[in-house]
Sequence to fold (489 residues):
Amino acid sequence: TTMATVVLDVGGEKFSIERKTLQRYPKSRLARLMRAPNVNEILKHCEEFTPGSPPEYFFDRNPDRFPVILNMYRIKELHMSRNGCPLVFQKELEYWMIDEDDMEPCCSITYYEKVVVCQNEKEEENDIKEKAVQQAEDEDFGETKLGKLRFFIWSTLEYPGSNAYAQVWAVVSMLLVVFSTALFFLETMEGIEENAEGYIEYPNIASALDWADGLVMFLFTLEYILRLVTCPHKIKFAVQPMNMIDLLALIPFYLGMILQQLEEFQLIGKAGKMVRLIRIMRLMRLFKLARHLAGLQSLLFVLKRAQSELGLLQIIIMVTILTFASLLYTAENARDHDNYNCTVWEANHTDSVESAYLHPCYVWTFFDSFWSSLMNITTCGYAIAPQTLLGKIVASLCTLCGVFILKLPVPIIVNSFSALYDSRMWRTEVEVKKKMYILQQATKAKEVEQRKQKRDIIMALMRPLAGSMIPGSEVTLSENTDTEKDTML
Fold:
């Protein structure tokens, strides 16, 4: 007779349940196990089987997740536990032959979202591991003095956390960026910057600032050249975004120097405006901070990850602006101009731009409406103000919509942004530790391989000599060598 109750031993923990309960999901592993006619069929679905009263089935699985599976048979509903990794739970469902689509809606929404997040994290982790291994291979410059020096320079300038010298240089580099930015601000002060007549009130201070800026640029140039010379792949190095920013931060200084020399030799005319424009480009040095600040790198990564949400928000804002701009354009141009001599005003008016918008004869363009709607929806305000009652109503509605559109999604975006930022910061720390660990392991493996090669060379040289001097010594040498090998390992 078939026993009504069975015992399921899952990883050492035993669970008792009625046989008919396990047959509620016919396609599942436990239902097939209950229908198995003989021992051979039973062992296809479990690791061990002990007949008896009641029979006992053993499964070599983690028992922590099994109560959720067993509860599904009892209440005929599949729910997910809140603890643990969703990918592990997915593997459990696959093992017990349970379709994840049977999960109840209250849990399925969270489950699928977490599965996607975990899969993305896992793929990124695998990519990071592959890149770290490839990086260790690329940065293997050999054991020569030149190779070791090249590796030291490259790791010191490229990886701020690789050694103490790298940490010191990272701090110095950030201070130089801040110092160069302060120099740029000081150079724009009255009396230091060259005026329209080409006169400088404080030439000594201006000259000192130029020398200080030249020293900073010399250090940045030396850093870039050293990194370019010692890098494993020159082309990859040149096309990386951060390295391109470093190069673009250097170009304005030398381009401005060339323009000034050409002006002095009278090869070109006055280049003051062009030089000032080029000097403004020196603010790109601020982007060098991203190389040494993990938080700033994480911020850029999170912006990249959230580009779909941010893009959707921008589309909503743009559609709203265009809608209210069209309404405002129609409302403002519906004014009656018959009571005013607009022909004379359009030909002779000398009002300022702000006053012209207030005049009844002024005809709004769509660009004016667009600009006014943009200022209203962002609650910034501007001198362009509608004059008709309908236009004021449209502008008021535009401002209210701007409050809702821009303010309400902020908590959602901030929460998502905060979670991604924390995750990225943690991942950055783990990446640094893993990179250092892989480099250390690669160095140790290289040292072991070198010792093995030296030992093989010594054995090859000593074995013929030992065999010719003392009979049987070759065997003794081989035994001693094996002992030495075991000791070294």
User: Anything to note?
Assistant: DSSP finds 21 helices and four strands in the chain. The CA atoms of residues 124 and 130 lie 10 Å apart.
